[in-house]
Amino acid sequence: MKKKFAAICISLAITLTGPGMSMVTMTYADEITKENQQDQEISNDQNNTKDGENSNTNDGKETENDLIQGNDSDSSQEKAEENITEEESKEDNMEAQQEEPSEETDSEEAVTQRKVLNINDGWNFSTNDTSTAGWNFPSGAGNGVVNLPHSWEYVHPRQSYIPQMNSKTVTYEKTVNISEIKNKNLFIKFYGAARNTEVFIDGEKVGTHVGGYSAFVFDITNYVQGKDEITIKANVTNIDTVSIPINVDYTQWGGIYRDVELISTDDQYISLEDYGNKGIYIDSNVNGTTADVNVKNEISNKSNDDKELKIVTDIYDADGNKVTGTEQKVTAKANKNVQPYSTKCQIDNVHLWNGTKDPYLYTANVTVYNENDEVLDTVSDNFGVRTYEIKNGKFYLNGQEYEIHGVGMHQDREGYGNAVPDDLKVQDMNLMQEMGVNAIRTSHYPHSQSTYNLADERGMLVYCEIPYYLLLSNAESYKTSIKEELKEMIRQGYNHPSIMMWGIENEVYQPASAAAFGKDFQINENTLVSFNSSVAKLAQKEDTTRYIVQAQIDSSNANKVCAKWSKNGNVDYTGVNLYVGFKSSVSSADDEGRKEITDTLNRKLNEYKQTYNASSMMITEYGAGANINQHATMDENFSWSSDDASKDKHYEEYQAFVLETYYSLIQKRKDIPVSFVWNMFDFSCYRNEGGIPRRNTKGLVCYDHTTKKDAFYFYKANWNQQDKFVYLTSKRYTERDTKYQQIKVYSNCEGVELFVNGQSVGKGRKQQSGVFVWDDVKLDDMNTIKAVGTSDGQTYSDEVSGIKAENKNSATSIKYQTHIQSIGWQEAKKDGQTSGTIGKGLRMEALKVKLQNKKYGGNIEYRTHIAQKGWQDWKKNGQTAGTTGEKLAMEAVRLKLTGELAEHYDIYYRVHSQSYGWLGWAKNGEIAGTAGLAKRMEAIQIKLVEKGGKAPGTSEKHYVSNQGVFYQSHVQTYGWQTWKQNGETSGTSGQAKRLEAIKIKLQKMKVSGNIEYQSHVQTYGWEKSWKKNGQLSGTSGKAKRLEAVKIRLTGEMKNKYDVYYRVHAQSYGWLGWAKNGEKAGTEGLAKRLEAVQIVLVEKGGAAPGSTEKTFIKK
């Protein structure tokens, strides 16, 4: 069993220094010479993957200014191990299998194993400031007695972005009794103090640590000899300009915000001096069902004599059973720290660490014995065995493709600053797992070891990075801090199987504004490239087993410079932080807006792949802000400006719109193996935007780490397929500005049905994976909305009440834009204004139309006839109809309203056509323009008129054509209708009138051939012969319905064109487009045809619409 460490008391005082502080220059022995290496390293197999390099040792005992980097686990783990838990039971099992000295031997004063004392409680804290203005203490009190972890911030009352104005130095002080361990070696370990820390013992300075995000250790043995009680003081400074980070976009919380421990050891112990790690490094290599495990153990010997030691390294499985182990006899040199000894063992039938699917962990237990076989020291650490790689645009874990579900995450939390208790970190991890996260970018600095322990246990993949952001300085202290913090990060995190990537920088590109921070920040490109190249090489040297990566800002020039230090394998992968759609303008929040975002993203990603000569790219950040109290309807009338990102409106619905668009692109591309949503949680920053002061609103969960935004459920629907659910979006949007709304649901169910005020609206249309929508849902003044999903026979539901809807905007109007030769897109026009040009001989090439302030259900739809291409597909609500960049003219256009809009309005439109000028006003789907005459459209006018109202002008001669397919139908009651052509509707819909006969002909086609057709007639069945060239097919005067038709081309027409046709059938509505003799309609169901449309398409061209369900037979 673990030995309980008797309570002792000492006094500490720590001061954080500010600008102008005297930095203590540390001596780092970055490499051990080959002679020393051979002298130090004794290995059973002579295999040491780290080769003793970068061990940061001094050959003699540490002087008072020597900084000793320490152990790698949070004291919270040590405290937790005191409890009787399953983990302790596991360790008991492990200890029971070891050969240990008896209790009598273990208790002798001559040998004292390592003891660890948490000293978090009862520190005297002082701001050293006479004013309280600008101070914030989210965790713990201000001046007076505080318990650690403790966090604070200072922001100058003018909220200055100049670091010097926000810099403060505070003092923590504590007295501790050390009488029980006064003759032992004593170390003090800080797991996190932000950001620079001076440590004093009884007024005598021990040393300074620079950096606020990693653990560090001071050897205080020489300061406590012969004393029963000591006072520890720490001076802690939050911000300076001579170390990283500087000018960051997150709050630089100050304080001792992680645990502090006193650690006592015998003269021989597992090293505490190697950049804060545990003194053991574990590597593994998988070979089939076995794994070779290499463990490098670092030993320190403070005695004046060489010591014969035995190192026992045992490996235990997750149940505490020993699976393998080794024993080494070594000679530890006198007065030497961090002496590396490597050993290798093999695990048979290895159980791999397999991400969230199976995060299996082994434990390495290292025990050091003296020559009398007495235990001197024991350290254990968990590790996992796994392989991973990126290839062919995908991520592979243990040889299997593994889809990355990544988020970025800062460590602060509302009410705590950076001093977040471990139980709340567990809550955060639970939230991420609920959403389906399996990868975390711990931004933009190393997080606590407890976070990485959780990641190991839960199977999260981790991208861990140093706080090197935006700027390089010529100051040597600044450059040193970058490299030293890199070593701390890698060495402290080395054994975590969750960590797969080391990040060396974030958006470092030295913008011109850097000069504002002083002359040291005036860096030329060559200096930047040279230094960052050296940082990358250092990272590669520190760890050859993981990817070395970086994140760059979305800038062509910045990435071109970045590529210069990344070449030759210095950096394995570069990611780009992309905010297209949030920091750039988007004209509408509809399909057209999605296309704008997607097109821009594709262009940028392709450019950056070329810049880095890479086959794939990471997206290291993407996101948009959201304030859950701000809402808007996402449709063709919503637009976003590039400067809206920094303004006070961040709509919850717009965040979801942007993230849906990004995710769709990521899923479709095959070259984005890793991506991270920015951010999992809102976090504190220095900006004021989105209507919340000092808040970055891009989180999927609010700053309370509890309230989930709509977009949280979008990712849950895509990433978590186990926990079935239905989520109605926009629940907090309680006062809607129109009664016709798109309702959206996120769900991982197979299908979802919507109910409004108890009435079914039907099944949702699947917009994309996890997203179900219902267009133009009519709401009452007050509404209850419910969604019910089904999956494997089970139902899941979500409901919201109290949704008010009111038509608040002005009358419905129409808005349209034209793309003109040599000009491009013109400014939008509306309600009958002229869009295009007259008298300039310029062709119209494309058109976008949208409705504003809709008060009825339905849409505007439109299609264009393009020179050389013919009729294009129908578009709607601001989508582009026509072409751009192809130099092709629009020749004709059709527009129509659908749904309730068609019942309340007529849509009129006329075109200005080459040679003809203004043609007459067409309406409601009729053709306006020309066909077969090679005449360009030059301008257009569009106008809404109340149903049955007067046309804006003459309706004569709105379409001029001399060729194409023409057809005429005989309709119940009405008889023969006028000839229609080229896709127009012949017949009726919604009037329950049967088609009885049809005539079809070709006119003025330039190739030979005919059109033939055959009808299926009530009672008679299929006609026995094909009709052609205007002959009657069907019956007249016999009251017999047409039920189906077939149409085909002959001769050269068959080789040049496809003939498409579709029918409107009783009970079914419009069926799909059949072609070239296929059956269209029904058979054996006694269903009448009511209307028909026929179109000629150049051979192999796109169908006019869906070709599904063209014919239904009983």
UniProtKB/TrEMBL annotation:
BP-aspect Gene Ontology terms: carbohydrate metabolic process
GO molecular function, one term: hydrolase activity, hydrolyzing O-glycosyl compounds
Residue ranges annotated for the Glycosyl hydrolases family 2 sugar binding domain, each copy included: 162-264
Domain Glycoside hydrolase family 2 immunoglobulin-like beta-sandwich, first and last residues per copy: 280-386
Cross-referenced InterPro entries: Beta-gal/glucu_dom_sf, ChW, DUF4982, Galactose-bd-like_sf, GH, GH2_Domain-Containing, Glyco_hydro_2, Glyco_hydro_2_cat
Residue ranges occupied by any Glycoside hydrolase family 2 catalytic domain in the UniProt entry: 389-716
Keywords: Glycosidase, Hydrolase, Signal
All copies of domain DUF4982, residue ranges: 742-795
Signal peptide: 1-22
Composition bias type Acidic residues, residue spans: 97-109
Compositional bias ranges of the Basic and acidic residues kind: 48-64
SMART domains, alphabetized: ChW
Location of the region described as Disordered in the Swiss-Prot/TrEMBL record: 32-111
Presence of keyword Signal: yes
Family to which this protein belongs: Belongs to the glycosyl hydrolase 2 family.
Protein's name in the database: DUF4982 domain-containing protein
